[in-house]
Amino acid sequence: MGASNGMPHRADDTRGTRPRSLSDIRVGWIGLGRMGAPMAARLLDSGVDLAVYNRTTAKADPLVERGATRLGSVAEAGECEVVFSMVLDDAVLGELHDPRTGLFSRSDGRRIAVWIDGSTVSAQAAERAADAARAAGVAYVSAPVSGNPAVVEAGNAVFVLSGDEAGLDLAEDLTRRIGRQVFRAGAGAEANVIKLCVNAVLAVTMQALAEVAVLADKAGVSRAALMTFLNESAIGSPFTRYKTDNLVALRFPPTFTPEGQRKDIRLALDLARRTETPMPVLNTTETAYSRLISGGLGEGRDFAALVLAVARDAGHALEPEEDRE
Protein backbone atom coordinates (compact mmCIF):
# COMPACT_ATOMS: atom_id res chain seq x y z
CA MET A 1 0.00 0.00 0.00
CA GLY A 2 1.52 3.31 -1.05
CA ALA A 3 1.76 6.57 0.78
CA SER A 4 -1.02 8.04 -1.34
CA ASN A 5 -3.64 6.28 0.77
CA GLY A 6 -2.68 8.12 3.94
CA MET A 7 -1.62 4.94 5.75
CA PRO A 8 1.86 5.21 7.28
CA HIS A 9 4.40 2.48 6.56
CA ARG A 10 6.67 1.11 9.25
CA ALA A 11 8.92 -1.14 7.16
CA ASP A 12 12.05 0.37 8.74
CA ASP A 13 10.51 0.74 12.18
CA THR A 14 10.91 -2.78 13.49
CA ARG A 15 11.37 -3.29 17.19
CA GLY A 16 11.17 -5.89 19.85
CA THR A 17 13.30 -8.98 20.10
CA ARG A 18 12.44 -11.68 17.60
CA PRO A 19 11.01 -14.53 19.70
CA ARG A 20 12.33 -18.05 19.57
CA SER A 21 10.47 -20.75 17.64
CA LEU A 22 6.94 -21.64 18.70
CA SER A 23 8.16 -24.86 20.27
CA ASP A 24 9.95 -22.80 22.92
CA ILE A 25 7.42 -20.12 23.83
CA ARG A 26 4.01 -19.62 25.37
CA VAL A 27 1.38 -17.81 23.33
CA GLY A 28 -1.18 -15.71 25.16
CA TRP A 29 -4.65 -15.59 23.61
CA ILE A 30 -7.13 -12.80 24.41
CA GLY A 31 -10.73 -13.08 23.24
CA LEU A 32 -12.71 -16.34 23.07
CA GLY A 33 -15.84 -15.27 21.25
CA ARG A 34 -17.53 -16.88 18.27
CA MET A 35 -14.35 -16.69 16.18
CA GLY A 36 -11.66 -16.53 18.84
CA ALA A 37 -12.55 -19.80 20.54
CA PRO A 38 -12.18 -22.09 17.48
CA MET A 39 -9.05 -20.23 16.39
CA ALA A 40 -7.44 -20.71 19.79
CA ALA A 41 -8.54 -24.36 19.81
CA ARG A 42 -6.73 -25.00 16.53
CA LEU A 43 -3.55 -23.48 17.93
CA LEU A 44 -3.83 -25.62 21.03
CA ASP A 45 -4.41 -28.72 18.93
CA SER A 46 -1.31 -27.90 16.87
CA GLY A 47 0.84 -28.25 19.98
CA VAL A 48 1.28 -24.58 20.88
CA ASP A 49 1.73 -23.83 24.59
CA LEU A 50 -1.35 -21.64 24.99
CA ALA A 51 -2.53 -19.37 27.81
CA VAL A 52 -6.04 -17.92 27.41
CA TYR A 53 -8.03 -14.97 28.72
CA ASN A 54 -11.62 -13.86 28.26
CA ARG A 55 -13.63 -11.32 30.23
CA THR A 56 -16.39 -13.91 30.61
CA THR A 57 -14.18 -16.47 32.33
CA ALA A 58 -16.43 -19.45 31.63
CA LYS A 59 -15.64 -19.17 27.92
CA ALA A 60 -12.08 -20.23 28.71
CA ASP A 61 -13.16 -23.40 30.51
CA PRO A 62 -13.28 -25.77 27.48
CA LEU A 63 -9.74 -24.81 26.44
CA VAL A 64 -8.40 -25.02 29.99
CA GLU A 65 -9.89 -28.50 30.28
CA ARG A 66 -7.96 -29.43 27.12
CA GLY A 67 -4.65 -28.19 28.47
CA ALA A 68 -4.50 -24.41 28.05
CA THR A 69 -3.39 -22.23 30.96
CA ARG A 70 -5.92 -19.73 32.31
CA LEU A 71 -4.86 -16.08 32.50
CA GLY A 72 -6.43 -13.83 35.11
CA SER A 73 -6.15 -10.52 33.28
CA VAL A 74 -4.98 -8.76 30.14
CA ALA A 75 -1.90 -7.57 32.02
CA GLU A 76 -1.07 -11.15 32.94
CA ALA A 77 -1.01 -11.99 29.23
CA GLY A 78 1.97 -9.64 29.08
CA GLU A 79 4.02 -12.46 30.66
CA CYS A 80 3.81 -14.35 27.35
CA GLU A 81 6.37 -13.68 24.63
CA VAL A 82 3.64 -13.59 21.99
CA VAL A 83 0.03 -12.42 22.36
CA PHE A 84 -2.75 -13.00 19.83
CA SER A 85 -5.95 -11.01 20.36
CA MET A 86 -9.37 -11.47 18.75
CA VAL A 87 -11.77 -8.89 20.17
CA LEU A 88 -15.06 -7.23 19.34
CA ASP A 89 -14.28 -3.73 18.16
CA ASP A 90 -12.09 -0.62 18.27
CA ALA A 91 -12.98 0.16 21.87
CA VAL A 92 -12.01 -3.27 23.21
CA LEU A 93 -8.78 -3.23 21.20
CA GLY A 94 -8.00 0.10 22.83
CA GLU A 95 -8.48 -1.44 26.27
CA LEU A 96 -5.76 -3.98 25.49
CA HIS A 97 -3.12 -1.24 25.39
CA ASP A 98 -4.52 0.86 28.26
CA PRO A 99 -1.39 2.04 30.09
CA ARG A 100 -2.96 1.21 33.47
CA THR A 101 -4.35 -2.28 32.84
CA GLY A 102 -3.28 -3.38 29.37
CA LEU A 103 -0.62 -5.59 27.89
CA PHE A 104 2.16 -3.10 28.58
CA SER A 105 1.15 -2.13 32.12
CA ARG A 106 3.42 -4.55 33.98
CA SER A 107 5.96 -2.98 36.31
CA ASP A 108 8.23 -6.02 36.64
CA GLY A 109 10.08 -5.43 33.36
CA ARG A 110 8.65 -8.48 31.62
CA ARG A 111 7.14 -7.75 28.24
CA ILE A 112 5.97 -9.49 25.14
CA ALA A 113 7.94 -9.49 21.88
CA VAL A 114 5.08 -9.65 19.37
CA TRP A 115 1.43 -8.65 19.55
CA ILE A 116 -0.80 -10.07 16.79
CA ASP A 117 -4.39 -8.87 16.45
CA GLY A 118 -6.98 -10.66 14.33
CA SER A 119 -9.93 -8.40 15.11
CA THR A 120 -11.99 -6.59 12.50
CA VAL A 121 -11.25 -3.01 13.48
CA SER A 122 -10.58 0.32 11.80
CA ALA A 123 -7.18 1.20 10.43
CA GLN A 124 -7.07 4.03 12.96
CA ALA A 125 -7.57 1.63 15.89
CA ALA A 126 -4.85 -0.63 14.52
CA GLU A 127 -2.47 2.32 14.20
CA ARG A 128 -3.16 3.39 17.79
CA ALA A 129 -2.41 -0.16 18.97
CA ALA A 130 0.76 -0.21 16.88
CA ASP A 131 1.86 3.12 18.36
CA ALA A 132 1.34 1.79 21.89
CA ALA A 133 3.33 -1.32 20.98
CA ARG A 134 6.07 0.85 19.49
CA ALA A 135 6.36 2.80 22.73
CA ALA A 136 6.71 -0.50 24.63
CA GLY A 137 9.30 -1.92 22.21
CA VAL A 138 6.90 -4.56 20.87
CA ALA A 139 6.30 -5.60 17.25
CA TYR A 140 2.65 -5.31 16.16
CA VAL A 141 0.95 -7.28 13.38
CA SER A 142 -2.62 -7.00 12.09
CA ALA A 143 -3.97 -10.43 11.12
CA PRO A 144 -7.68 -10.25 10.24
CA VAL A 145 -9.33 -13.46 9.14
CA SER A 146 -11.87 -14.39 6.47
CA GLY A 147 -14.25 -17.15 7.44
CA ASN A 148 -16.90 -18.10 9.98
CA PRO A 149 -16.60 -20.43 12.99
CA ALA A 150 -17.34 -23.55 10.93
CA VAL A 151 -14.75 -22.51 8.36
CA VAL A 152 -12.19 -21.98 11.14
CA GLU A 153 -12.96 -25.35 12.71
CA ALA A 154 -12.42 -27.04 9.34
CA GLY A 155 -9.03 -25.35 8.95
CA ASN A 156 -10.13 -23.31 5.93
CA ALA A 157 -9.79 -19.76 7.27
CA VAL A 158 -7.75 -17.26 5.24
CA PHE A 159 -5.60 -14.56 6.84
CA VAL A 160 -4.11 -11.30 5.62
CA LEU A 161 -1.14 -9.85 7.52
CA SER A 162 0.48 -6.45 7.71
CA GLY A 163 2.69 -4.75 10.24
CA ASP A 164 6.17 -4.84 11.70
CA GLU A 165 8.76 -6.98 9.96
CA ALA A 166 9.98 -8.28 13.31
CA GLY A 167 6.65 -10.03 13.90
CA LEU A 168 5.49 -11.11 10.45
CA ASP A 169 7.25 -14.47 10.22
CA LEU A 170 5.94 -15.61 13.57
CA ALA A 171 2.45 -14.29 12.79
CA GLU A 172 2.48 -16.28 9.57
CA ASP A 173 3.57 -19.42 11.42
CA LEU A 174 0.73 -19.04 13.91
CA THR A 175 -1.97 -18.24 11.37
CA ARG A 176 -0.93 -21.13 9.12
CA ARG A 177 -1.58 -23.44 12.06
CA ILE A 178 -5.13 -22.04 12.22
CA GLY A 179 -6.09 -21.62 8.55
CA ARG A 180 -5.26 -22.78 5.03
CA GLN A 181 -3.79 -19.66 3.48
CA VAL A 182 -1.96 -16.51 4.58
CA PHE A 183 -1.26 -13.36 2.58
CA ARG A 184 1.04 -10.45 3.40
CA ALA A 185 -0.15 -6.96 2.50
CA GLY A 186 2.35 -4.42 3.81
CA ALA A 187 4.02 -2.74 6.76
CA GLY A 188 1.11 -0.75 8.18
CA ALA A 189 -2.66 -1.17 8.53
CA GLU A 190 -3.18 -2.52 5.00
CA ALA A 191 -4.61 -5.81 6.31
CA ASN A 192 -7.31 -3.94 8.25
CA VAL A 193 -8.34 -2.02 5.14
CA ILE A 194 -8.49 -5.22 3.07
CA LYS A 195 -10.69 -6.93 5.66
CA LEU A 196 -13.15 -4.02 5.69
CA CYS A 197 -13.30 -4.04 1.88
CA VAL A 198 -13.97 -7.79 1.81
CA ASN A 199 -16.71 -7.54 4.44
CA ALA A 200 -18.28 -4.67 2.51
CA VAL A 201 -18.52 -6.92 -0.55
CA LEU A 202 -20.06 -9.71 1.58
CA ALA A 203 -22.64 -7.31 3.01
CA VAL A 204 -23.67 -6.01 -0.42
CA THR A 205 -23.71 -9.52 -1.91
CA MET A 206 -25.99 -10.81 0.84
CA GLN A 207 -28.42 -7.95 0.27
CA ALA A 208 -28.43 -8.63 -3.47
CA LEU A 209 -29.03 -12.36 -2.90
CA ALA A 210 -31.91 -11.58 -0.54
CA GLU A 211 -33.51 -9.27 -3.09
CA VAL A 212 -33.33 -11.68 -6.03
CA ALA A 213 -34.52 -14.59 -3.86
CA VAL A 214 -37.68 -12.65 -3.00
CA LEU A 215 -38.07 -11.47 -6.60
CA ALA A 216 -37.92 -15.04 -7.92
CA ASP A 217 -40.26 -16.36 -5.24
CA LYS A 218 -42.81 -13.62 -5.83
CA ALA A 219 -42.67 -14.32 -9.57
CA GLY A 220 -43.47 -17.98 -8.97
CA VAL A 221 -39.95 -19.45 -9.26
CA SER A 222 -38.62 -21.55 -6.41
CA ARG A 223 -35.67 -20.15 -4.55
CA ALA A 224 -34.02 -23.56 -4.74
CA ALA A 225 -34.14 -23.47 -8.54
CA LEU A 226 -32.73 -19.94 -8.56
CA MET A 227 -29.84 -20.78 -6.26
CA THR A 228 -29.03 -24.05 -8.03
CA PHE A 229 -28.51 -22.18 -11.28
CA LEU A 230 -26.81 -19.17 -9.67
CA ASN A 231 -24.30 -21.34 -7.83
CA GLU A 232 -23.17 -22.92 -11.12
CA SER A 233 -23.03 -19.63 -12.97
CA ALA A 234 -20.15 -17.17 -13.28
CA ILE A 235 -21.23 -15.41 -10.09
CA GLY A 236 -21.52 -18.56 -8.00
CA SER A 237 -19.01 -18.76 -5.14
CA PRO A 238 -18.37 -20.53 -1.86
CA PHE A 239 -20.31 -17.67 -0.24
CA THR A 240 -23.43 -18.09 -2.40
CA ARG A 241 -23.31 -21.84 -1.91
CA TYR A 242 -23.12 -21.81 1.87
CA LYS A 243 -25.83 -19.15 2.07
CA THR A 244 -28.18 -21.21 -0.10
CA ASP A 245 -29.69 -23.10 2.83
CA ASN A 246 -30.44 -19.80 4.59
CA LEU A 247 -32.30 -18.46 1.57
CA VAL A 248 -34.07 -21.67 0.60
CA ALA A 249 -34.91 -23.42 3.88
CA LEU A 250 -35.15 -20.16 5.86
CA ARG A 251 -32.86 -21.50 8.55
CA PHE A 252 -30.64 -18.82 10.10
CA PRO A 253 -28.25 -20.24 12.71
CA PRO A 254 -25.89 -17.32 13.29
CA THR A 255 -22.46 -17.57 11.74
CA PHE A 256 -22.24 -13.78 11.62
CA THR A 257 -24.84 -11.55 13.21
CA PRO A 258 -26.55 -8.58 11.53
CA GLU A 259 -25.12 -6.36 14.25
CA GLY A 260 -21.59 -7.56 13.54
CA GLN A 261 -21.98 -7.08 9.80
CA ARG A 262 -23.42 -3.59 10.26
CA LYS A 263 -20.49 -2.67 12.50
CA ASP A 264 -18.09 -3.62 9.73
CA ILE A 265 -20.14 -1.74 7.12
CA ARG A 266 -19.95 1.38 9.25
CA LEU A 267 -16.19 1.01 9.64
CA ALA A 268 -15.86 0.75 5.86
CA LEU A 269 -18.10 3.79 5.38
CA ASP A 270 -16.05 5.76 7.89
CA LEU A 271 -12.93 4.89 5.90
CA ALA A 272 -14.76 5.96 2.73
CA ARG A 273 -15.56 9.33 4.27
CA ARG A 274 -11.97 9.80 5.38
CA THR A 275 -10.69 9.06 1.89
CA GLU A 276 -13.47 10.92 0.01
CA THR A 277 -14.65 7.72 -1.67
CA PRO A 278 -18.35 7.73 -2.61
CA MET A 279 -19.98 4.37 -1.84
CA PRO A 280 -23.70 4.72 -2.62
CA VAL A 281 -24.36 0.98 -2.78
CA LEU A 282 -22.76 0.34 0.61
CA ASN A 283 -24.63 3.29 2.13
CA THR A 284 -27.92 1.81 0.95
CA THR A 285 -26.89 -1.59 2.28
CA GLU A 286 -26.18 -0.10 5.71
CA THR A 287 -29.77 1.16 5.77
CA ALA A 288 -31.03 -2.33 4.92
CA TYR A 289 -29.09 -3.87 7.82
CA SER A 290 -30.29 -1.16 10.19
CA ARG A 291 -33.90 -1.85 9.20
CA LEU A 292 -33.35 -5.58 9.72
CA ILE A 293 -32.01 -4.94 13.21
CA SER A 294 -34.49 -2.26 14.29
CA GLY A 295 -37.41 -4.31 12.95
CA GLY A 296 -36.43 -7.32 15.08
CA LEU A 297 -36.18 -9.81 12.23
CA GLY A 298 -32.45 -10.27 12.70
CA GLU A 299 -32.48 -11.01 16.42
CA GLY A 300 -30.62 -14.24 17.16
CA ARG A 301 -30.24 -14.95 13.45
CA ASP A 302 -27.54 -14.94 10.82
CA PHE A 303 -27.24 -11.82 8.68
CA ALA A 304 -28.83 -13.80 5.83
CA ALA A 305 -32.10 -13.01 7.59
CA LEU A 306 -32.03 -9.97 5.32
CA VAL A 307 -34.26 -12.07 3.06
CA LEU A 308 -37.03 -11.81 5.67
CA ALA A 309 -36.81 -8.03 5.70
CA VAL A 310 -36.88 -7.86 1.89
CA ALA A 311 -39.95 -10.11 1.83
CA ARG A 312 -41.64 -7.96 4.46
CA ASP A 313 -41.02 -4.84 2.38
CA ALA A 314 -42.38 -6.62 -0.69
CA GLY A 315 -45.54 -7.64 1.16
CA HIS A 316 -44.71 -11.26 0.43
CA ALA A 317 -44.81 -14.31 2.69
CA LEU A 318 -41.94 -16.75 2.26
CA GLU A 319 -42.26 -20.47 3.04
CA PRO A 320 -39.36 -22.85 3.67
CA GLU A 321 -38.31 -24.96 0.69
CA GLU A 322 -36.07 -27.95 0.38
CA ASP A 323 -32.67 -27.26 -1.19
CA ARG A 324 -32.68 -29.22 -4.46
CA GLU A 325 -28.95 -28.79 -5.21
From TrEMBL:
A GO term for molecular function: oxidoreductase activity
Q: Where is the 6-phosphogluconate dehydrogenase NADP-binding domain?
A: 26-184
Q: Does the keyword DNA-binding apply?
A: no
Pfam families, sorted = NAD_binding_11 (PF14833), NAD_binding_2 (PF03446)
- The keyword Oxidoreductase is assigned to this record: yes
Which residues are catalytic? 195
Question: Keywords assigned by UniProt?
Answer: NAD, Oxidoreductase
Boundaries of every 3-hydroxyisobutyrate dehydrogenase-like NAD-binding domain copy: 191-307
State the similarity comment: Belongs to the HIBADH-related family.
What this protein is called in its record is 3-hydroxyisobutyrate dehydrogenase-like beta-hydroxyacid dehydrogenase
Q: Which organism is it from?
A: Sphaerisporangium krabiense
